[in-house]
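PROTEIN DESIGN WORKSHEET
SECTION A - STRUCTURE
LENGTH: 340
TOKENS:
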């Protein structure tokens, strides 16, 4: 019997994946996985189990009343999980915390396979996962426990979902807990990870995309680009990759490879430092072609440090740019990303 992967995104940033059998309702599949989604009647009457379907196809049937789910709510993507029968993989936003639903973050172990420095700017960390490949949405992150420190650090996957070998692009921080450990890390060393986490992930691709990456905020976009390649996407995608110094431009070869594989993908790089001889200097907002904004009919994804995120938001406000959707993740070293 076929089944579908259902991602349940809780409001505290935790994501859990469940298997929903063909013809099975999401609420029943969640209970089978010991996840107590909000519910009361389970008959399509009370509306307590109302969630938002962010992607995927499904059937809601007719066994619910309008007071539980109006036509307007249904049109906007709201669903009753006690009635929802998936017909494909789906992503569902749950308006409750994971703890309230009696579930928790997933943990898994992995082994270091490669630690590759990129100048003094970043390190590419590759890990082999023990057991089944981790399931996540392109753009999400995990917490990686730093061995021997009692601390963890948060990093976005730069690899695509479904792979046993996963990768991360990690900013070098002199004296930083993770950076110090990476200096001594060797193939075979083990780490523990917790996740996936975060509401910054690639939604259904229905219009042109604008990706804005700052520094190691490039990582989630590498994951997204691989997903787009595998889906044979024909949609227009433009990436603007901004950094402070020339040496901070890392994995440009990977971006160029995607430009060769993805027919409507273009990109540009921008360096802020005055001393740079890069052909595009300044900030990403100074190198944002009007065409890539598509008169607002565009989905914008932004991942970078807080000043960059704030600058882009101000640029949009000052210039009357209202994208169809705007998803961003701002990060600082040693801190959990802030999502929107």
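SECTION B - SEQUENCE
RESIDUE ASSIGNMENT:
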């Amino acid at each position: 019997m076929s089944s579908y992967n259902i991602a349940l995104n809780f409001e505290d940033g935790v994501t859990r994946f469940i298997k929903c059998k063909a013809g099975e309702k999401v609420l029943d599949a969640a209970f089978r996985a010991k996840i107590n989604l909000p519910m009361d009647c389970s008959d399509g009457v009370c509306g307590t189990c109302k969630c938002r379907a962010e992607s995927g196809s499904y059937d809601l049937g007719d066994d619910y009343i309008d007071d539980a789910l109006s036509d307007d709510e249904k049109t906007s993507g709201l669903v009753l999980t006690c009635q929802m029968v998936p017909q494909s993989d789906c992503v569902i936003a749950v308006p409750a915390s994971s703890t309230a639903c009696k579930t928790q973050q997933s943990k898994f172990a992995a082994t270091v396979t490669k630690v590759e420095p990129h100048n003094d700017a970043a390190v590419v960390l590759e890990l082999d996962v023990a057991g089944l490949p981790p399931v996540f949405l392109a753009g999400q992150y995990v917490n990686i426990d730093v061995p021997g420190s009692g601390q963890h650090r948060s990093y976005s996957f730069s690899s695509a979902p479904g792979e046993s070998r996963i990768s991360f692009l990690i900013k070098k921080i002199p004296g930083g807990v993770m950076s110090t450990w990476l200096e001594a890390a060797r193939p075979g060393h083990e780490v523990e990870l917790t996740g996936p986490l975060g509401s910054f992930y690639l939604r259904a691709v229905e219009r042109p995309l604008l990706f804005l990456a700052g520094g190691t905020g490039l990582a989630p976009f590498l994951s997204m680009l691989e997903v787009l390649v595998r889906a044979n996407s024909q949609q227009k995608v433009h990436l603007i990759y901004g950094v402070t110094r020339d040496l901070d431009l890392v994995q440009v070869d990977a971006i160029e490879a995607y430009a060769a594989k993805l027919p409507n993908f273009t990109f540009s790089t921008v360096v802020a430092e005055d001393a740079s001889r890069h052909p595009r200097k300044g900030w990403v907002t100074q190198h944002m072609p009007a065409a890539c904004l598509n008169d607002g009919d565009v989905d914008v994804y932004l991942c970078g440090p807080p000043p960059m995120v704030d600058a882009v938001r101000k640029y949009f406000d000052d210039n009357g740019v209202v994208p169809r959707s705007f998803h961003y993740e701002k990060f600082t070293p040693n801190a959990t990303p802030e999502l929107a």
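SECTION C - NOTES
The chain has seven helices and 19 strands.
The chain has three domains: 3-94, 107-197, 209-339.
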